[in-house]
Amino acid sequence: MNNRKLSAMQPSDGVVWISGASSGIGAAVAMEMAERGWKVAISARSSKKLDKIAALHQNINAFECDVTDREGMSQTAQKIETEIGSLAMIIANAGIYLPTHFPEFDVSVFDESFDVNLTGTVNMIAAAYPFMIARKKGQIVLVSSVAGYNGLPTSAAYGSTKAALLNMGEAMAVDLAKYGLSVNMVAPGFIDTPATQKNTFHMPALMDVTKAAKAMVDGLEKNHTRITFPKRFTFWLRLLTFLPRQLFVRLLSR
């Protein structure tokens, strides 16, 4: 599904702001967009890591900020507007994966996952939205995951936040189109990043982070409403959504 009536933002439109950009796919996307001529603002909690990324390209500017700090995110958006230029695109990429391990029920895993992955995304949108809606143009990008398609083992907390982002993104895409704003949802599979390198299980179709960043930015330039990669993996996960739920649960429980 594409936002056919809306054009993708271009580097000439202003700045792209990327959260969770001190490493992994966020940092790779920052580099890819900087190479394509964008002015890039990157944010995360670690100023040292941000500064290392910013030092790699003259188009990248670092802004230390925590997505769970709503007022801080608002102040960062204002600072970007003042110091670099108009916010044309935001990429809400900050996220954490905290596995659930039963039979224990650790509520803190859910609380922290919701705070960063879901409320943190809302905080970023809230910070940039006033500038975009006033200009009646902009691109809001929500980085979800294929874990949001189906309930997967150990992902009760993580997957629920990513499913929420897909639902929220679709609703916002419908609501905001008439105001000139696009909403893009990105659902990656397994990407080779410092986060996934900690996984002890097999990760099918593991994708190089540089290739993943290119696939993501290519999709944003075409203003695709939903962007997934690698295709050979995400296609099969989408098919699983059509299985009867009882059969799906039985298969994955094994």
From TrEMBL:
Name recorded for this polypeptide: Methylmalonyl-CoA mutase protein
Entry GO MF terms: methylmalonyl-CoA mutase activity; oxidoreductase activity
Entry keywords, A to Z: Isomerase, Oxidoreductase
PANTHER family: DEHYDROGENASE/REDUCTASE SDR FAMILY MEMBER 7B, DEHYDROGENASE_REDUCTASE SDR FAMILY MEMBER 7B
InterPro entries per record: NAD(P)-bd_dom_sf, Sc_DH/Rdtase_CS, SDR_fam
Family: Belongs to the short-chain dehydrogenases/reductases (SDR) family.
EC number of this enzyme: 5.4.99.2
UniProt organism field: Candidatus Micropelagius thuwalensis
An example Gene Ontology CC term for this record: membrane
